[in-house]
Design a protein that fits this description.
Layout (H helix, E strand, L loop, with lengths): L8 E3 L2 E6 L2 E6 L10 H24 L8 H19 L20 E3 L9 E6 L2 E6 L8 H7 L8 E10 L3 E11 L12 E2 L3 E5 L4 E8 L4 E8 L13 E10 L2 E4 L2 E2 L11 H8 L50 E3 L3 E2 L3 E6 L5 E5 L10 E2 L4 E3 L3 E9 L2 E2 L3 E7 L10
Parallel strand pairs: 17-24
Antiparallel strand pairs: 1-2, 2-3, 4-15, 5-6, 6-12, 7-8, 7-13, 8-10, 9-11, 11-12, 13-14, 16-18, 18-21, 19-20, 19-22, 22-23, 22-24
Helix pairs in contact: 1-2, 1-4
Length: 411
């Protein structure tokens, strides 16, 4: 269709509409993203920091929160605890700048459950080797006494030690080592540098370690991590973090002990200035003076120049929705399932979706939706859409597992 024959649509910088039987030609309207408040920018910074931490810790986090089934529920619990801690004591975390794909260390809770915790380990570093020393002492000990002290009180019980160290490749890296009781321990006193035959050992990819030993010269139990891939440890750096998790398989799934990353001496606590500098790196979107505007500050209602949010009768607006109302998100998925179901949440263009899986009312501080959720247990999902300072009504849907029992992955 030629230029003058066009009745509706757009060409170059012009748009064409039919109104009252007449064709109207006007300049094209800019699409403008709503500016974000200081509070929203701070939350974006926290969410990005937690998301990057999860990328490095997910091998542990995906199945270490008792009562949570599946990756989505464990991640939601991990995120909520971290965000709450960041608001109560911001100094316990370092914060990610915009676009960073790096782990920023912090006192992340990586496990929660009913089991009693065991004493933490201290870490010494020598080149590409680590020495993890427990607080368990007492002179000459038998295998049975050591197992009891470490919470390995039955066959199948496990102790997992998550270690975060400075890395030449990625600033920080997270590795883990694990001991599992596979047989009854002996009642013999453990000789110096003797491995415990009743334990089976495992580690993350690329890590080699010697296992649990009792060394009389240092009078405690220690784990010697003899090899970590070249370049993954920064020589001379004094920061190390670790968390110790007990776990055991029970009739209703795995049980865990609570565990939080303990920060090493090299971790520098954040200040308000550090946090604000990180927040300032997040983009707020560009601002344009729309057709007919004068560049003055818009009224609190969000309209341009006191009138409708569109210009010259156009249909485009800020953020893709009305400036005063926002449709509730749509939650979709099989509401009755036998093993698992995929749940998706959608909202109007430009809006962010935040959701909860514990029945609580979602807010801007709840988990940000990014991809489909996999449910394996009966769950109520509640969600809201947020665009700038406008929030929608709460959408809610319950998904019911009709038969079978869901289990947790082994930690």
């Amino acid at each position: 269709m030629n230029f003058f024959g066009q009745k509706s649509g757009s060409t170059k910088s012009l748009t064409f509409q039919i109104r009252d039987g007449k064709q109207i030609v006007k300049d094209r309207v800019w699409k403008v993203r709503n500016p974000r408040s200081v509070r929203q920018m701070a939350q974006r910074c926290r969410l990005a920091t937690v998301a990057q931490a999860y990328r490095y810790l997910n091998a542990i986090v995906d199945h270490s929160f008792q009562g949570m089934s599946g990756r989505a529920q464990n991640y939601a619990r991990f995120s909520k605890l971290a965000l709450d801690d960041m608001k109560s004591d911001m100094t316990k975390f370092a914060y990610a700048n915009w676009g960073e794909k790096k782990f920023r260390p912090g006192a992340y809770q990586v496990s929660a459950g009913k089991l009693d915790p065991i004493p933490a380990f201290t870490i010494e570093k020598s080149g590409n080797a680590l020495l993890l020393k427990s607080a368990v002492t007492g002179g000459s000990l038998t295998e049975a006494q050591i197992c009891e002290a470490l919470g390995l009180d039955r066959i199948g019980a496990m102790v997992t030690i998550l270690i975060v160290v400075p890395s030449e490749l990625t600033d920080y890296t997270a590795v883990w080592v694990r001991a599992k009781r596979i047989s009854n321990p002996s009642s013999n006193v453990l000789a110096q540098n003797t491995q415990m035959a009743c334990l089976q050992f495992d580690a993350s990819k690329g890590v080699v370690f010697s296992g649990f030993k009792y060394t009389s010269s240092v009078a405690n139990i220690h784990i010697e991590v003899t090899t970590i891939p070249n370049g993954y440890l920064t020589p001379g750096a004094d920061y190390c973090g670790n968390a110790v998790i007990r776990s055991i398989e029970a009739d209703d799934g795995y049980q865990y002990s609570p565990a939080t990353l303990i920060m090493g001496a090299g971790f520098a606590a954040s200040t308000l200035n550090d946090f604000e500098n990180a927040c300032a790196t997040y983009p707020t979107g560009e601002t344009f003076v729309l057709q007919g505007g004068n560049g003055s500050v818009a009224p609190a209602s969000g309209s341009n120049g006191g009138g409708s949010n569109n210009n010259g009768g156009g249909s485009e607006n800020n953020g893709g929705g009305s400036s005063s109302t926002l449709d509730a998100p749509v939650i979709q998925g099989d509401t009755t399932f036998s093993e698992s179901t995929q749940v998706t949440i959608s909202a109007v263009s430009g809006a962010q979706v935040h959701y909860t899986t514990d029945g609580s009312t979602p807010t801007a501080e709840s988990t940000l939706y990014s991809s489909a959720l996999t449910l394996t247990e009966t769950t109520t999902i509640k969600a809201i859409a947020i665009n700038g300072s406008v929030s929608s009504a709460v959408a809610s849907k319950t998904f019911v597992k009709s038969s079978g029992e869901g289990g947790m992955d082994q930690n």
